[in-house]
Amino acid sequence: MRFMMIVKANEKSEAGVLPTEAQFAAMGKYNEELQKAGVLVDLSGLKPSSAGVKVKFSGGKRTVVDGPFTEAREMIAGYWIIQVKSKEEAIEWAKRIPAESAEMAEVEVRPFFELEDFAPGPAVDAAKERMKKLQADGGPKS
Amino acid sequence: MRVMIMVKVNQDSKGERGAVPTEAEMAPMGKFNEELQKAGVLLDLSGLKPSSAGARVTFNRGKPTVVDGPFTEAKELVAGYWILQVKSKEEAIEWAKRIPAESGGIEAVEIRPFYEMEDLEMEDFAPSPAVDAAKELGKKLPSGAGGKP
Q1: Which of A3, A30, A79, B77 has its CA 20 to 30 A from that of A41?
Q2: Minimal-distance CA residue of chain B relative to A141
Q3: CB-hemisphere CA count at 13 Å for B38?
Q4: What's the whole-model pTM score?
Q5: Residue range A41-70: mean pLDDT, rounded
Q6: How much is the ipTM here?
Q7: Residue of A nearest to B42 (CA)
Q8: At what angle do helices B23-38 and A122-136 cross, to 10 degrees?
Q9: Residue A7 confidence (pLDDT)
Q10: More confident residue, B47 or A119
C-alpha cells in the first residue's frame, strides 16, 4: 500500500524559514532509514503559501486568489510517499519522524487510491496506460 | 519549476463521504490528464482515500500520539494532486483553470511550488555532509527533489 505522510505547515514554514544544519541532518538520517528499508517512494518540501495561488471553481467560472493563505494548520509544508504493507507499518514510520528537531506538531498519514480500487471501465483502462507511460518515461514509480 | 496542484475538499465532499468517482466523472478528468501528458508537463498524479482511511500522528515534545481518521474538524483536506513541471507560476495557473472541476466536484485547488536543492544553496547553506547526502537521495527519487530543473 502507498501512503502519504503529510507535514502540516506552521508559522516557521509559512515564514519560509529554512532548516538549520542540525535539523537538516536529523531529517536526513530519518530519510536514509526509510530508503535503506526500501519503503521510500518520494519526498518533497513545498514553499510557503505566499509563493502559491488558489484557483476556485464555481459554475464554470475560475477565480484566482494569490497566497498567502491564513489557516496555517490546514496547509501543507511537505510530504513523504512510502510503500508499506499496512497502515500500522505506515504509522510506525510516522512515529519515528524526528519531529521535535523539526518542530513538527503533526503529520497526517493517508493511503492512496490505487487504480484497482475503481470499477473497471474505459477511463480506468486509459488511466492505467497513462501511469505505465509515466513510469516508462522515467517518471514516478508509483 | 515543479509545482503541486492540490485538490482541497471539506468533510462534506463526496469523496470524504466515501463516494468513488463514476466512469462518467472519470472520463473528463482522464482527458485532462492526457492533455497534461501530451504537453510533457505531467510528472505525477494521485488520489488519496478519504480521511476515514487515514490516521494522524501528533508530536508532543517528541512523543507521538496516534489518532484515527476521519478528521471531522478539518476545514480543508487534501483529496489528491498533480505534480507538474512548468516554466512559470502563470503556466501552472493556466493548467489549473482547465481542470474539469465541475465533473469532478472540485471547488478549489491550491498551487504550490516545491523547494528545490538550489533554493537551499541560495540561502548560503554551507556545503555539508547532510546537504550532500540529501542531494544524493534526491537524485534517486522520481520527482527529482534533489535538484533536477
Answers
A1: B77
A2: B142
A3: 6
A4: 0.88
A5: 92
A6: 0.87
A7: A134
A8: 30
A9: 94
A10: B47
Q: One-letter amino acid identity for A37?
A: A
For A12-32, b/e burial (b = at least 16 CB within 10 A) is: ebbeeebbeeebbbbbbebbe
Are residues B141 and A40, on separate chains, in Cβ contact within 8 Å? yes
Q: Could you tell me how many residues make up chain A? A: 142
CA distance A3 to A42: 11
Which residue of B29, B89, B101 is in closest CB contact with A53?
B89
Residue B83's contacts (CB-CB under 8 Å, 6 or more residues apart) are A140, B2, B3, B4, B5, B42, B43, B44, B45, B143
Interhelix angle A21-36/B129-140, nearest 10 degrees:
40
- Grade residue B145 by pLDDT with cuts at 50, 70 and 90: low
The sign of the torsion formed by the CA atoms of B71, B76, B80, B81 equals negative
Mean pLDDT throughout A59-78? 87
For residue A101, give the H/E element and its range: helix A99-102
Q: Using CB atoms within 10 A of its CB, is residue A116 exposed (0-12), middle (13-18) or buried (19+)?
A: exposed
Q: Are B10 and B76 in contact (CB under 8 A)?
A: yes
Nearest in space to B99 (alpha carbons), one of B29, B14, B24, B6? B29
- What pLDDT is stored for residue B47 in this prediction? 92
Nearest Cα residue in chain A from B60: A105
* Residue B115 contacts residue B3 (beta carbons within 8 Å): no
Q: Which residues in chain B are closer than 8 Å to A58, comparing Cβ atoms?
A: 107
Give the span between the Cα atoms of B22 and A95, in whole angstroms.
Answer: 36
Question: How far, in Å, CA of B20 to CA of B15, rounded?
Answer: 7
